[in-house]
């Protein structure tokens, strides 16, 4: 293996999907990185995730797509039903024709599987990537030749540059944007993973399925070779704001979905749910200061309604690696170029996710208008609408083709 292109490492705060993908992208480009993760071990929460074609393009560029595909379920449709009437509002086939159009499938998988594939990819590049746990980043100082990163235990890690991939409550972001904790959005969700035996038989669909109800929606899809089903039930609630990542009982959850018809209600069978407070940020026009930048949720925290947060973190990682390669270690210049390439696209997804919430949660006449708007929506028109997000951006194509186009 040839020597790394940088003497001092790129320090990455956070070992989630975004941070690990960034380390892998840098290693592919010949750079040395240190990942600092606050937790005792590198891990993801036990829930599902949808991966649209653009997420697969990025995984492909990072050479971990085959490994993630081993455990993924390749669904056949994206469905949206009206939770009140039960009627189908949107039905997008994502079979062969979709794959041909976008060059990759739409699939669903367990978060641990995608995170595990990235982690193994990083471990296999142990000569270029150092992984450290129990390392909570609390701040940094920009120095003449790089960055000194401060950890909670008082130690300092020096590097040529710092990437804040430290998620929704990013410490690195506070020194760059300084906008405090992201506000609670007024939306919260209840998450659960069901054994297939607990999933009503007539709802075991090969689809990412969404039941849109007044101020609520329910999402479900199969996981891990159809052994499990992921369930996320979301409400817009004035009481949202407390009890994040705590247990919630069916007595708390079921009344919130009382306006739904029998079918979606029949999925709310878990004996216990995990309550999740949803937060989001409005887009900002700067993520960088000198040799320090942000990536993933730290840069553009969004509601999950477009199922694109992780996809954006993966694309960020690929773009960052390409920019650093192009600028050959001039990190400040690379981060400006990365930000220029990513800001509008990621912000568009961030804003689109909030708008989708209005669509999903429509009530009264707005609900009827929504259903009418999508009646008969089919054929190429559906795929045209997804083109801007599902086709790979240039930097993803470049890393996929080994840096050449
Ligand atoms: C209910 C729900 C469903 C979703 N569904 C989808 C989906 O279907 N498809 C999709 O693409 N996206 C989805 N998302 C979004 C996706 O989960 C996130 O956008 C993605 O995980 C962001 O990755 P990240 O690496 O930027 O941040 P994170 O996953 O938050 O990782 C940040 C890491 O940094 C660590 N860390 C935090 N602070 C520090 C610190 N100070 N020092 C060191 N380490 C630190 C954390 O422990 C963590 O490991 C969903 C989100 C939610 C809430």
Quick structural overview:
This protein has 405 residues and is α/β, with parallel strands linked by helices. The protein contains 14 helices and 19 strands.
Notes on the structure:
With 405 residues, the protein is of the alpha/beta class. It is built from 14 helices and 19 strands. Helix 2 packs parallel to helix 10 (309-326). The longest helix is centred in the C-terminal third of the chain and has 30 residues, at 331-360. Bound molecules: flavin-adenine dinucleotide. Flavin-adenine dinucleotide binds next to helix 1, strand 3 and helix 10.
Shape: globular
Strand order of the largest sheet: 6-5-14-15-16-13-18-17
Q: Proportion of β residues?
A: 25-35%
Gyration radius, to the nearest Å? 21 Å
Count every helix, treating DSSP H or I runs of 4 or more residues as helices.
14
| Distance N to C terminus | 25 Å
Mean pLDDT: 95
Q: Helix proportion of residues, in percent?
A: 25-40%
Main sheet characteristics: 8 strands, mixed
Oligomer: single chain
Secondary structure category: alpha/beta
Number-wise, the strands total 19
Spans of at least 5 consecutive residues whose pLDDT stays below 50 are none
| Ligand identities | flavin-adenine dinucleotide
């Amino acid at each position: 293996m040839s020597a790394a292109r940088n003497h001092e490492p790129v320090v990455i705060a956070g070992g989630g999907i975004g941070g690990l993908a960034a380390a892998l992208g840098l290693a592919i480009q010949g750079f040395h990185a240190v990942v600092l993760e606050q937790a005792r071990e590198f891990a993801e929460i036990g829930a599902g995730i949808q991966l649209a074609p653009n997420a697969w393009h990025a995984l492909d560029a990072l050479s971990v797509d085959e490994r993630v595909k081993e455990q993924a379920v390749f669904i056949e449709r994206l469905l949206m039903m009206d939770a009140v009437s039960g009627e189908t509002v949107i039905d997008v086939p994502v079979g062969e024709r979709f794959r041909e159009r976008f060059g990759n499938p739409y699939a669903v998988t367990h978060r641990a599987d995608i995170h595990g594939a990235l982690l193994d990819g990083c471990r296999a590049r142990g000569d270029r990537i150092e992984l450290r746990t129990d390392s909570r980043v609390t701040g940094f100082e920009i120095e003449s030749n790089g960055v000194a990163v401060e950890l909670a235990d008082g130690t300092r890690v020096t590097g040529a540059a710092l990437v804040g991939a430290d998620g929704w409550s990013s410490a690195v972001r506070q020194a760059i944007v300084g906008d405090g904790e992201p506000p609670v959005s007024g939306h919260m969700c209840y998450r659960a993973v069901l054994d297939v035996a607990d999933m009503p038989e007539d709802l075991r669909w090969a689809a990412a399925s969404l039941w849109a109800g007044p101020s609520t929606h329910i999402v479900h899809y199969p996981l891990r070779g159809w052994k499990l089903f992921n369930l996320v039930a979301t409400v817009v609630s004035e009481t949202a704001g407390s009890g994040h990542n705590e247990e919630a009982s069916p007595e708390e959850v079921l009344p919130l979905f009382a306006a739904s018809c029998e079918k979606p209600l029949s999925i709310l069978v878990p004996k216990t749910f995990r309550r999740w407070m949803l937060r989001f940020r409005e887009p900002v026009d700067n993520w960088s200061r000198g040799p320090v930048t942000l990536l993933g949720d730290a840069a553009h925290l969004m509601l999950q309604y477009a199922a694109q947060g992780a996809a954006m973190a993966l694309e960020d990682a690929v773009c960052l690696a390409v920019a650093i390669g192009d600028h050959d270690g001039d990190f400040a210049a690379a981060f400006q170029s990365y930000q220029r390439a990513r800001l509008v696209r990621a912000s568009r997804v961030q804003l689109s996710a909030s708008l989708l919430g209005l669509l999903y949660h429509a009530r009264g006449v707005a609900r009827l208008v929504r259903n009418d708007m999508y009646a008969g929506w089919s054929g190429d028109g559906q795929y045209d609408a997804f083109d801007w997000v599902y086709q790979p951006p240039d930097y993803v194509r470049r890393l996929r083709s080994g840096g050449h186009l």
